[in-house]
């Protein structure tokens, strides 16, 4: 069993988040696809993910998660103390998603945007769909 993370491939913050996850995913639990890729578009369609969601998406156990729920569920599978953040799922979703939304809405302004999706390094390329 594994999880698939769909991310905004032109967002610098999202790219750094993927790099962060790759370094802490010792069990290689996650695979990745940009939202702009053919694989990402197919997964969005297959899992009936609304196209207006401004969020990283986690697909796990034949279900998709977005916003803070995706981020916290991702943390559950990372090495170190990061997995403790999963406990924040007890915070009501509207509160968690409000904080997530502030970052999501400002990510291009604060962190920048690139013209195209990043090319994964050769050592992790097989984890990208």
Task: Provide an overview of this structure.
One of its GO terms (molecular function) is protein-disulfide reductase activity. The chain has 129 residues and is α+β, with helices and mostly antiparallel strands. It has one domain (3-127). The protein is 39% helix and 14% strand. The chain has helices spanning 12-24, 38-46, 67-75, 93-111; strands at residues 3-7, 30-34, 57-60, 63-66. It has a four-stranded mixed beta sheet with strand order 2-1-3-4, with helices on both faces.
Q: Any descriptors?
A:
129 residues, alpha+beta, four-stranded mixed beta sheet, 4 strands, 39% helix, protein-disulfide reductase activity
Principal-axes geometry comes out as globular
Strand order of the largest sheet: 2-1-3-4
The chain-level mean pLDDT equals 88
Based on secondary structure, the structural category is: alpha+beta
Main sheet properties: 4 strands, mixed
How many β-strand stretches?
4
Termini gap? 16 Å
Number of domains: 1
Helix content: 25-40%
Helix and strand element order:
EHEHEEHH
Whole-angstrom Rg: 14 Å
Determine the strand fraction and express it as a percent band: 5-15%
- Ranges with pLDDT <50 over ≥5 residues? none
What's the number of helices? Answer: 4
């Amino acid at each position: 069993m594994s999880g698939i993370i769909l991310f905004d491939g032109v967002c610098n913050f999202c790219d750094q988040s993927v790099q962060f996850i790759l370094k802490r995913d010792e069990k290689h639990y996650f695979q990745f696809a940009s939202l702009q890729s053919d694989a990402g578009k197919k997964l969005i369609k297959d899992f009936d993910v609304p196209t207006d969601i401004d969020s990283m998406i986690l697909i796990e156990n034949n279900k998709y998660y977005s916003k803070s729920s995706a981020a916290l569920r991702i943390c559950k599978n990372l090495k170190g103390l990061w997995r403790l953040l999963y406990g924040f799922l007890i915070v009501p979703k509207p509160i968690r998603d409000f904080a997530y939304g502030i970052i999501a809405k400002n990510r291009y302004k604060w962190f920048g945007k690139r013209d195209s999706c990043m090319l994964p390094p050769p050592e992790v390329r097989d984890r990208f769909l």
